[in-house]
Design a protein that fits this description.
single chain; alpha/beta; Rossmann fold; GMP Synthetase, Chain A, domain 3; 7-stranded mixed sheet; globular; transmembrane; transmembrane helix; AMP-bd_C
Length: 428
């Protein structure tokens, strides 16, 4: 264990950059907030005295979503607010005068992230009590004059299908943020059109990161449903077939690994072994053990990154590895009656290669006019044309909805377990 701890010894690679951020941040705070070494509430006349705590002192505990494996209890520290605020400032230009809205809750990391990202940067936080799926939320965005609106792709899909944003003025929005799921190009073109084609900043990270490790940027040309840069204070690696990092800037698909020293990232777990979860068995780079995150990413020839879902959701179809997200992107556009799909690789009961099963959720789940055999042929045709001629859909099953975590991530492992237990031709 001594070797493990020594290999993770902290090196302050990005300290200077973040010190500059804090200096700039403090210079932007209105003087009325900083009086006599504390914070004065000008409305109540109450002074709050600052309390000194170590940087690593725990402020709150969040639970990971359990998308893969068991949920983990992850302590956030005094560094976590700075990571959240720095991401918003650097990559989304959140600043004083902004009104930031992001449908979330305090049980998901984006809840405390929103508090820190908006208030530390001097922005206003717009809170809506209710479902964000209907016209009432669209009206709230208009009336609150939201300037930065965060979304998850499934919310955007619902808005588009129900036309619930029609007639509302979102012209004050200067950019969108998106996280939680892989995005769809057509859906995001539609989203941009709601606000005169303002940009969408893709944002991907995790509870244990305190923010993102990869993101878009307002300072670079963007590609829809793609990421343009590592988050400030982070370095990325894509692991090749041999488990080692691909050469810098080389295109390819593989599990994404992080440099071991990410500002704001977790260093402990509540009742868990942090090293075993994030570092054990990972390759080294320049003498340092890389950090595991578990996402599958593609680096394109143009230098952009695209998410392909969790590495655990990768299937082996006839000896070819493919991510669920790649197949789902194709299937979602095959028929207008399809709301969403989930692609699952299921091992046959008698052994042999994984078989591809597509779980389909229809926009009208009550309709009985769906020909699953015809849909299976359509799926096969499009998948073989757009991905690989050797891929073949073995079965199509219908669901009223996909199983999701509390943070809206599709739980493909649950579907895989159900299909394995019930057989490929059974209804779920």
């Amino acid at each position: 264990m001594a070797e493990e701890e020594n290999s993770l010894e902290y090196t302050p690679t990005w300290v200077v950059a973040f010190i500059c951020f804090i200096i700039v941040l403090l210079s932007l705070l209105p003087e009325r907030f900083l009086e006599r070494g504390g914070i004065l509430d000008s409305h109540l006349g109450v002074e709050y005295i600052a309390v000194e705590k170590p940087a690593g002192a725990c402020t709150n505990i969040l639970f990971s979503s359990g998308t893969t494996g068991e949920p983990k209890a992850i302590p956030w520290t005094n560094i976590s607010p700075l990571k959240s605020a720095a991401d918003a400032w650097c990559h989304m230009d959140v600043h004083q005068g902004d009104v930031v809205a992001w449908p979330t809750n305090l049980g998901w990391m984006m809840g405390p992230w929103l508090v820190y990202a908006s208030l530390i940067n001097g922005a206003c936080m717009a809170l809506y009590n209710g479902s964000p799926l209907g016209p009432a939320f669209a009206k709230f965005v208009q009336d609150a004059e939201v300037t930065m609106l965060g979304v998850i792709p499934s919310i955007v899909r619902t808005w588009q299908n129900s036309n619930s944003t029609s007639g509302y003025d979102w012209s004050r929005i200067r950019c969108f943020g998106s996280t939680g799921e892989a995005s769809n190009v057509d859906e995001y073109l539609w989203l941009m059109s709601r606000a005169h084609y303002k940009p969408v900043i893709e944002y991907c990270g995790g509870t244990e990161i305190g923010g993102s490790f990869i993101t878009g940027s307002l300072l670079q040309p963007q590609s829809l449903a793609a990421f343009s840069t590592a988050a400030m204070g982070c370095k990325l690696f894509i692991l090749g077939e041999d488990g080692n990092p691909l050469p810098p800037d080389a295109e390819g698909v593989g599990e994404l690994a992080l440099c071991p020293h990410v500002f704001g990232a977790s260093s402990s777990l509540l009742n868990g072994n942090h090293y075993n979860v994030y570092f054990k068995g990972m390759p080294t780079f320049q003498g340092q053990v890389l950090r595991r995150h578990g996402d599958l990413f593609e680096r394109t020839s143009k230098g952009y990154y695209r998410a392909h879902g969790r590495a655990d959701d990768t299937m082996n179809l006839g000896g070819i590895k493919v991510g669920s997200i790649e197949i789902e992107r194709v299937c979602n556009s095959v028929d207008e009656s399809v709301l969403e799909t989930a692609a699952i690789g299921v091992p046959p009961p008698t052994g042999g290669p994984e078989q591809l099963v597509i779980a389909v959720v229809f926009k009208d789940p009550e309709s009985r006019n769906h020909n699953l055999n015809l849909m299976k042929k359509s799926f096969n045709s499009e998948i073989q044309k757009k991905l690989n001629p050797l891929f073949k859909v073995s079965s199509v099953v219908t669901l009223p909805s996909l199983p999701r975590t509390a943070t809206n991530k599709v739980m493909r492992r649950v579907l895989r377990q159900r299909l394995t237990q019930t057989g490929l031709n059974s209804k779920l």
